[in-house]
Amino acid sequence: MAEPKPEEISHPPMDQLQGLEYCIDSNPSWGEAIALGFQHYILALGTAVMIPSFLVPLMGGTDDDKVRVVQTLLFVEGINTLLQTLFGTRLPTVIGGSYAFMVPIISIIHDTTLLNIEDNHMSFLYTMRAVQGALIVASSIQIILGYSQMWAICTRFFSPLGMIPVIALVGFGLFDKGFPVVGRCIEIGIPMLILFIAFSQYLKNFHTKQLPILERFALIISITVIWAYAHLLTASGAYKHRPELTQLNCRTDKANLISSAPWIKIPYPLQWGAPTFDAGHAFGMMAAVLVSLIESTGSYKAAARLASATPPPAHILSRGIGWQGIGILLDGLFGTLTGSTVSVENVGLLGSTRVGSRRVIQISAGFMIFFSILGKFGALFASIPFTIFAAVYCVLFGIVASVGLSFMQFTNMNSMRNLFIIGVALFLGLSVPEYYREYTAKALHGPAHTRAVWFNDFLNTIFFSSPTVALIVAVLLDNTLDYKDSARDRGMPWWANFRTFKGDSRSEEFYSLPFNLNRFFPPS
Fold it and tell me: Which among 237, 233, 158, 229 has a CA at the least distance from the CA of 195?
């Protein structure tokens, strides 16, 4: 038997991911793009409904309040997504609500001055205004770091090696939103997971008019089938005598969104009243803004790869963070009850559909704005049980995580130094937040528990985030451990081409501003 050739054993590293049907600046037909945009809109509903559904009752809000917050969040998501895809990084990323803001927001909810308000509706309004004020102040962090190019300077310390655990944990770090939620309603979650994998992978070669319809629209088809199945179980009385938690996760009529939603309602700034400002609340919220910045940086790099683009130059990344800061400012002005970050599940959907087109994401932003104004129609889609979304997350978060692992091809994985850094960063990135979660569940407060509430919020928020812990560990080790003699092992020669806008000729194709705006804002 002949000896295998070297090229038959290993695979050469590739700047751009191959095998995508449409990359960032190529577009499917208008009909296909609209259907794909609607699919991204449906996927974005999971987080947009889940966060208000958890927080609004804690604030004393009613179902009417919850619906208004969901509508407002979707409306601002649409605006932020358009701004990011037009003027920010220009990557095909949906800008959605972030779980990173939960810790400081829950801390605001438990502020004694707000808890002492007896009227539930007034308690909701005053808490909302306090959250708005904190978001408005904290948004300045991303605006300053982004537009001053300070974040671009920070990224000089990031190597492909350091980014592996960060991007990987952008996906893996959300494991608690996956199968643990599927397990709350196995009879819906498992069929959804199996059906989505079957359509998107095993039946992907099924074509209708030369279109791989099952692969391209696996999400919308499988959600439709399982949603109808869940409605059938609900209507037949299958959950009539089941525990309340089971009913909440399985029934299709427990969200109370459709009955509470108005037919037409346009969200507007300061609709909840004038925001209130408190230094302690703002400091705690700043930690969430920093976490959002780090998580989004990992997501932007994953989105660039899944859109078959080159890595975004430091200037472009910083510009995107600046616009994301503007997005958080809009969150505070409109009152969305959370800040903004890149929607990880929508990044994963780029890989699942093999369509990384920017136009598709811009169309999805149009759907968000349209259905947030037409309340009843939006509420119909928003009433999909969250278990169905969790089943899809099991696949899509995994795709994003694997993109992070794919950066290993640019580094020397036969180096003990590199193995040490990646292993320790990945392990601590999973282990530290898990410790914080378990501690909080038992003690009903985080491990940081001093008299300075803002300090507690800051530390607890930082260490609740897997990508943030991974970044701290990986970047620190990568820049202090034998770093002078390991540039090639770290992947720096490959990375250097994409550090500046003019370092690679393809950057102009992928990241130039529209309407010839580069004349007025020349990239560095």
Answer: 229
Residue appearing with tokens 């990031």: 158
CB contact set of 426 (below 8 Å; sequence gap of 6+): 165, 168, 169, 172, 470
Q: Which residues pair with 341 in a beta bridge?
A: 96
Q: Is residue 524 part of a domain?
A: no
The reply to whether 503 falls in a domain is no
Please list the rounded mean pLDDT of every run of 10 residues in the chain (524 residues): 65 79 92 96 93 93 91 96 96 95 95 90 96 97 96 92 96 94 93 96 87 93 94 87 82 75 88 94 95 96 94 93 97 96 96 95 96 83 88 97 94 94 97 95 90 92 96 95 86 82 75 77 64
* pTM (two decimals): 0.94
Give the three-class secondary structure for 33. Answer: helix
What is the spatial distance between Cα 206 and Cα 336, in angstroms, rounded to a whole number? Answer: 41
Strand 340-342 and strand 95-97: the pairing is: antiparallel
Amino acid at 177: K
Contact present, 173 and 433 (Cβ < 8 Å): yes
Q: How many residues does the chain have?
A: 524
- Name residue, tokens 């968000």: 368
Q: Is 441 exposed, middle or buried (0-12, 13-18, 19+ CB in 10 A)?
A: exposed
When divided into structural domains, the chain yields a total of 1
Amino acid letter at 32? E
| Residues 6 or more apart whose Cβ sits within 8 Å of residue 158 | 475
According to DSSP H, which parts of 307-445 are helical?
Answer: 314-334, 344-353, 358-373, 375-382, 386-406, 416-443
Residue 511: inside a domain, yes or no? no
CA distances from 492 to 159, 299, 347, 488, 496 (A): 6, 20, 25, 6, 6
* 213 within a domain of the structure (yes/no): yes
Q: Is 74 exposed, middle or buried (0-12, 13-18, 19+ CB in 10 A)?
A: buried
Contact 382/70 with Cβ under 8 angstroms? yes
| Pair of tokens at residue 343 | 């929607």
Domain boundaries, position 239: 30-492
DSSP state of 268: -
Q: Which of 39, 44, 46, 35 is nearest to 388 (CA)?
A: 46
